[in-house]
Amino acid sequence: MNFYLKLHISQKENLLSIYHFENLKIAIDDDFVWIKNLTDEQINSKQIKILTQKTVYYEKEGKLYLQNSLLPQRNIPSLLWTEIERAIQIELPKVIENKFDIQSVNAIQPKIVSSENEKEAVAMLISVKQLEGYIKGAAAVRLQNLKWVILENQFDKTQNKVFIIGKPILPILSNLSKKDIKIFWQNDNLFIPIGFDFEFSGLRESISEKLKNTIYSNWYEDIVVKSEENDFNQTWNNENRFYSIWNEESEFFLIPKDDFMPLSRSSFKLSFM
């Protein structure tokens, strides 16, 4: 059975909860948003139930019937229908220390909110001084699965930081406060603070894809040699070469994957000689 949904346009931002239903199409009719192609499973999903001020119809013989009604309510509206991914565009927040110049021309910003879902810790953000205190006596085997990169002026501009990825994370949490360290879980190319998630988790894949497809900055042009043998778009648009690191304020910064190096006592010493 094919279902239709009618929402007041003030509910636009709440449509992020169904952004990942790729089969849906959307149209605007004055002050209302129409959605069609909803399946029985989708219309009864949690994502649809949380939407307020909605009217649900089902389609039969070219007419629309109110849900649970046997009498036709109206004709199917004649509107210009657009795929949901084109109709609802995601606006990424400003990058912290935006040297990568992500361009954004869209309408809705994703939000990071508190979450009770348990996630595995796979990355940490600490100061150089804190890492130095641990690494002096660390066994090489304890560091062998970890990679790191030095950061400047990211979440905390008062001191340099290091971002470390890999499992298990370093066992130095008991000596530090929440202000001293940030722990992250990973979803694809996104690193999100433990205890937090996107308000609409179905957006993670779309955000990661958008980051991949919108990073065309002067910074790229400075390091990529354009030639007939090296097509710029083909070289950089097929793969996400960045990790995005998010904080609780829904901000993020980017780290090129190639900047990471294996963590060891020797790599640490060489970095600060």
Features:
29% strand, 7-stranded antiparallel β-sheet, alpha+beta, 273 residues, 2 domains
Brief overview:
This protein has helices spanning about 40-45, 45-50, 85, 130-135, 140-145, 205-215, 220-225, 230-235, 265-270; strands spanning about 5-10, 25-30, 30-40, 55-60, 65, 70-75, 80-85, 110-115, 125, 145-150, 160-165, 180-185, 190-195, 195-200, 240-245, 250-255, 260. It is an alpha+beta fold and about 270 residues long. It has an 8-stranded mixed sheet. A 7-stranded antiparallel sheet has the order 6-5-4-1-3-2-7.
Secondary structure blueprint with pairings:
Layout: E1 3-8, E2 25-29, E3 32-38, H1 40-43, H2 46-49, E4 54-60, E5 63-66, E6 72-75, E7 82-83, H3 84-87, E8 112-114, E9 123-127, H4 128-135, H5 140-143, E10 147-151, E11 161-165, E12 182-187, E13 190-193, E14 196-198, H6 204-214, H7 218-223, H8 232-237, E15 242-246, E16 252-256, E17 261-262, H9 265-271
Parallel strand pairs: 13-15
Antiparallel strand pairs: 1-3, 1-4, 2-3, 2-7, 4-5, 5-6, 8-14, 9-11, 9-12, 10-11, 10-17, 12-13, 15-16
Through-space gap between termini: 68 Å
Instruction: Name the helicity range.
Output: 10-25%
Spatial strand arrangement across the major sheet: 16-15-13-12-9-11-10-17
Question: How large is the radius of gyration?
Answer: 24 Å
What integer is the average pLDDT?
77
Structural category is: alpha+beta
